[in-house]
Write a structure and sequence with these properties.
The structure holds two protein chains of two kinds. Chain A has helices spanning 18-30, 34-47, 52-64, 68-76, 83-95, 99-107, 113-125, 129-139, 147-157, 164-170. Chain A is mainly α. Classes of the chains: A mainly alpha, B mainly alpha.
Chain lengths: 171, 47
């Protein structure tokens, strides 16, 4: 009598396809369920380590969940940093009040409206109001919503309140 | 009128405008193809 075939070694269930996980991730993002979104990104990264879309979603979800330490760690875990990660890293450092490091990280990113906005907020916290206002002057033509509020704050803190009216008129 | 602006003893409001620029990447192309989208296409032709 032939020996009974050995039962197949029990294998862990196959992981769900990545596209299913991304579909679920997208649902959580649309629902602003950031804690669940992070869990999904972890599932994706467990199957596909180094997946840039998943990592980017994870970092953004952690930031939107106010978990800046975790977001920073997630960025540091990436071996190669795509350029836009330097902005996210700088933002985490800014929220952790590590302002000089935040500025350093920003310098590795192309100087666009977003980086200038963040730079101005860092300079404001550093008390460098004149540098901050230089940036707001450059950003004026970009018509960023509510920028005048931060400009007025910097003017007042710089002791240049008399210029406020002129600034507001120029917006 | 209007009266001139004057400094007051209060920290002015600063908004975190950089936060508003942080957005999720587009992951549409990583998701399962939406069957409803196809139905919509057909219904646009035949509907």
């Amino acid at each position: 009598m032939a020996p009974k075939p050995k039962p197949a070694p029990s294998q862990p269930p196959a992981p769900p396809p990545l596209e299913d996980l991304f579909t679920t991730l997208n649902k959580h993002i649309q629902a602003s369920a950031f804690t669940n979104a992070v869990k999904l990104t972890d599932q994706i990264l467990a199957i596909a380590p180094g997946d840039e879309d998943a990592l980017r979603c994870k970092v953004v979800a952690l930031i939107k969940d106010d978990r800046f330490d975790d977001a920073f760690s997630a960025i540091q875990s990436s071996k190669t940093l795509p350029e836009d990660f330097h902005f996210l890293k700088a933002y985490c450092l800014y929220k952790q009040n590590k302002l000089d490091e935040a500025l350093q990280s920003l310098q590795k990113h192309e100087r666009d409206d977003e980086t200038m906005l963040l730079e101005s907020q860092i300079l404001y916290r550093l008390g460098k109001m004149d540098d901050c206002l230089d940036i707001y002057q450059k950003l004026q033509k970009s018509k960023i919503d509510l920028l005048e509020i931060n400009s007025v704050a910097a003017l007042v803190m710089a002791g240049r309140s008399s210029e406020v009216q002129g600034w507001l008129d120029s917006f | 009128f209007p009266p001139a602006f004057q400094a007051i003893a209060r920290n002015p409001i600063v908004l975190d405008l950089a936060y508003n620029t942080i957005e999720f990447p587009d992951i549409e192309h990583r998701m399962k193809k939406d069957k409803r989208a196809k139905g919509g296409f057909i219904s646009r032709i035949f509907g």
